[in-house]
Amino acid sequence: MVLAGLDDVDWAAFDGAYGPCTEAPDILRAVASPDPETADEGRFEIGSSFWHQGTVYPVTPEVVPFLVELAATPGVHQRDHLLCTLGGLCDPDQVDGAQRDAVRAAVAVHSGPFVELLADPDPRVRAAAAYALAWAGPHGADALEARWAVEEDPAVRAALLPGLAMHDRRGAADRLRAVVMSGSAVERLCAAHTYTRLGLTVPAEAMGPLAEAFGSGVPASGPWFTARQPLEQLLRHLGPGAADALVAAVLARTPDASQVLGVLESFARDNRAAAANAARHVRTCLGAADPHVRAAAARAAYGLGEAAAGVADALAAFAERPDAGQERGTAVDTLVRLGHPAAPALLAAVLDAGAQPRLAAGALGAIVPVPFDGALLAAVRRRLADPAATRPMGIMERLQGGKNLRDLVELVASWGPAAAAAVPELRLAWNVEPTAVPAALAAVGAVDALPALRERARGGDVSCGHAVLRLTGDPADLLAAARAALDRPPRPDIGYRLRLLADAGPAAAPLLPTVRSLVAASGDDHDSRRLRVHAARLEWSLTGDAQPLVPVLRTVLRGLDHVASAAAELLAEFPPESTVDAAPLLRTMLAIRRPHQTVAAAHALRRLGAGPDELAGPLLDAAGQGSTPAVRLLVALDARDAAPALAALAAQERRVVRDGGYHDLPWEDDRFRRVVREAVAALGG
């Protein structure tokens, strides 16, 4: 009887991902169901309740014997999937949580059926059994060796190989070399994975056969291949020099260079030296006869960051091709970031074709500078006037890309009065971009828009009131908008509104009682604390009196989060004698070694007299995580002893900047390194 004893377990006593795992029997019975859809739903729930996003729970070792039983029972759907799950539960790269060791022990204890499954009629089951048995522990090594001697299916032999090497390190190099020199393509791919997995040196004579395997078009499929494909794993293992030679060899052999370019792009995103080496391959592929290869090369070029300068002319030629397709926008995006002279004309053509590159880059989404160009302004105006572009979008459409006009509105604003002709089109986009358009109208000097701006300001639109202030110097409309806005329940953008109100200067004094009520408001949630900091900043700008604000900010500091960082930044502006009592909390924040918090605390502590001896270490740690403000503060501290560490950081092959938008990371990293090199020079390094 399948799943005997299932109801004898007190499942409520074992937590899963969502608390007491009382759903475990239903999940396991679903996996055992003869109905394929029900079984599929059950397997999905394994990854939800028992092993959620890599974490295992107290219930996980309890379900292991039942999963083993199901994997060993003929007729159960996708037994290979269950075996891969059991093997993955033992893989330290895939599992996290306090129950890791207990789960692996449970799999080891119940792994007996895996040996029999090595001879299952289904090769997929045999391959998955080899994977599970390898991870179950060294006791399965003899069984793996015995199966290796008789197995003829290349995919199963490939699945046996890593386990054999794991449990026979001394003989691993010879075995892998023999497979690489004479094995099938899929066996060679798995050998490449094994070299990287075990950290073994790849012999020079193996590079040619490995290139043939990667260039053969045989897919890297099987239980050992997870998130990264074996080519990318091997490139990372080899390092940029040897990796570049291997890429060249694979590209010379492969029938589909687009897949190799995708791997190369991913590698280049993580490794600066790899990006520089990749440029020549990308340049060659931009001129390929196959349009799919050209498109893949355009995508890869963006992932090179500033190293794409080496392919800029080829990229411009690609963007001018009538068959460039949707990757024309990607190519133009790269050229804009490089400041290529052809970028404005190409950007205008892309806009007129109905596409739109991403003009914002970096963690804050700042617009990449594009020089004013009359033809480009005309194209932007045509896009802003397009009814399809200016229709309101739902939040999901925005998140999925949509036809975002903010980039275009901010591009117009960046040109200032030279773009004044776009005022009618900016007004058409007003309802779609209600914050960006008033700022753009002010930037281009749109005095004709003052009546409309004032009307909206009277309705509580602080952005419009601020635009009136910029255009006229008169704060009255900003104050009227602020009064109306502050009389309403706080909105998520209240901090932005308060920052704009600060530009009214002393004229905002009549609003001080309202501002003080916001500073004194209760609530310890994230939004309430953030509101108090924004209001405290405005009160400080209006009164210059820090004393009543310090206790409020000290309370916020205890959260040690991003809101606490904003509080520390404000404390850094106060007279030092008023913030002495906050020093212990600031030092606690400094010690947690999170870049944003570190820099904010260091600024405030510097005002209190702390110097490089105390601050340089934490700031270097923050710089090592890609914090530009940390580097600049080291320069402000004249921390000359930090110069060697910064020089090493600037020269590091691995990307330093790891957080932010995935597509922009190489560009952010290149920009960060320029700041670091400037800091080294300033510090005498």
TrEMBL record:
Coiled coil: none annotated. Gene3D superfamilies: Leucine-rich Repeat Variant. Keywords: Repeat. It comes from the Bacteria. Pfam families: HEAT. InterPro entries: ARM-like, ARM-type_fold, HEAT. This is HEAT repeat domain-containing protein.
